[in-house]
Design goal:
single chain, alpha/beta, nine-stranded mixed beta sheet, 9 strands, binds ligand C2E, binds magnesium ion
C-alpha cells in the first residue's frame, strides 16, 4: 500500500475518530436495553492465600451485546460513568451478585469473601447506600464476607463523601479494598486517611517485577508500607510462578491472576476452587480458616 499523503492521513484520522465516536454512542445508547435484555452476566475470579487456598472471589461484569458482541468492561464502564448509566449497572451487579452470594453462603461451609467493584459515581449517591443496605438484608448476607473495591478517583473527587460512604459500609460490617493502588493519582496519605482493610497493588507493578528494577523497588515499598499499616495485601495480575513466589515471599496475603485462574462462571467456581486447592504451590494448612 502506498504511503498515505498528508491529506489522506487527515481523512483517515477523522474517519477513525468518527468511528470511535459512533461506537461510544452505540455503547452508551445500548446499556439500558442491555439491562432489560439480560445481556450482562458476572464472572468470578479467585483470590488465593498461599497457605489457605482460595479465600475470596472478585465479581467481574461481562457484556455480550446482541448488536455489538462481547464488550470489555474496560471499554463500557468508563462510558457508563460518563453518560450517567453506571449506577444502573452497579445496581444490577449488586442485585445479581448478592443473589449468588446468598447461595454461596448457604452451600459452602468454607466461606468465601466476595468483592464487588464500585465506581466513583456510585458512592456519591446517598440512595445507593440505602440500596446496598436493603439488598444485604433482603439476601440475608453475612456482611463480613462482602468487600467493595474502589479506586483512588473515588476519594479524590470528594474526600469527605467517599469517607462517609466507606465508614457507613464498615459500620454495617463490610470491608473496603483500595483497587489499582500505586498508579493513577494515588497519594500515600490516603492509606492513613481512608481506613481500608485491603490494598490491591496495581497489575502494572506485577507485570514489571522482573522487567524494571525500579518498579520492583516501588512494589516492595508498597508491600512493606502496607504490612506496617496492618493491611491485607492483594497482588493482582499474577500470571506466572516466578511472580507468585516473589510476591508470596514479599508478604502478600492474597494473590489473584491467571496463574491460578481466569474469571469463571459461578457454576464453575466450585470445581475451579478444588483445582486450585490441589495445586502443589498451595500449602493449605487449615482448610476452614479464611482471612
Ligand atoms: P479491576 O477491578 O482492576 O479488575 C482486574 C482486571 O484484570 C479484570 O479485567 C481481570 O479479568 C483482569 N485480570 C485478572 N487477572 C489477570 C492476569 O493475570 N492478567 C491479566 N492481563 N489480566 C488479569 P476485566 O474483568 O476486564 O475488568 C476490567 C476493569 O473493569 C476492572 O478492573 C474494573 O475496574 C472494571 N469492572 C469490572 N467489573 C466491574 C463491575 O462490576 N463494576 C465496576 N464499576 N467496574 C467493573
Ligand atoms: Mg477490582
Ligand atoms: Mg484492579
Ligand atoms: Mg482496574
Amino acid at each position: 500500500k502506498a504511503k498515505s499523503s498528508g491529506r489522506n492521513r487527515y481523512v483517515e484520522f477523522i474517519d477513525a475518530m468518527t468511528m470511535q465516536q459512533n461506537r461510544r454512542l452505540q455503547i452508551a445508547s445500548s446499556i439500558k436495553q442491555a439491562l432489560d435484555n439480560n445481556e450482562f452476566y458476572l464472572l468470578f475470579q479467585p483470590k488465593v492465600a498461599p497457605t489457605k487456598g482460595v479465600v475470596g472471589v472478585e465479581a467481574l461484569i461481562r457484556w455480550n451485546s446482541q448488536q455489538l458482541g462481547i464488550i470489555s468492561p474496560a471499554e463500557f464502564i468508563p462510558i457508563a460513568e460518563q453518560t450517567g448509566r453506571i449506577n444502573d449497572i452497579t445496581r444490577w451487579v449488586i442485585k445479581h451478585g448478592f443473589k449468588k452470594l446468598h447461595h454461596l453462603q448457604k452451600s459452602q461451609n468454607n466461606k468465601l469473601k466476595v468483592s464487588f467493584n464500585l465506581s466513583t459515581f456510585d458512592i456519591f449517591k446517598p440512595e445507593f447506600l440505602k440500596y446496598l443496605k436493603e439488598q444485604l438484608a433482603e439476601n440475608q448476607l453475612e456482611p463480613q464476607y462482602i468487600e467493595f473495591e474502589i479506586t483512588e478517583s473515588s476519594y479524590i473527587e470528594n474526600f469527605s463523601v467517599a469517607r462517609n460512604f466507606i465508614n457507613s459500609m464498615q459500620e454495617v460490617g463490610c470491608s473496603i479494598a483500595l483497587d489499582d493502588f500505586g498508579t493513577g493519582y494515588s497519594s500515600l496519605s490516603y492509606l492513613t486517611q481512608i481506613n481500608a482493610e485491603t490494598i490491591k497493588i496495581d497489575q502494572y507493578f506485577v507485570r514489571n517485577l522482573f522487567k524494571s528494577e525500579k518498579d520492583k523497588k516501588v512494589a516492595d515499598a508498597i508491600i512493606s508500607l502496607s504490612l506496617k499499616l496492618n493491611m491485607t495485601i492483594c497482588a493482582e495480575g499474577v500470571e506466572n510462578q516466578k511472580q507468585y513466589e516473589y510476591l508470596k515471599a514479599a508478604g502478600c496475603h492474597q494473590i489473584q491472576g491467571y496463574y491460578f485462574s481466569k474469571p469463571v462462571a459461578y457454576e464453575q467456581l466450585n470445581d475451579n476452587i478444588k483445582r486450585i486447592q490441589n495445586m502443589p504451590d498451595i500449602k493449605v494448612t487449615k482448610l476452614s480458616s479464611v482471612k
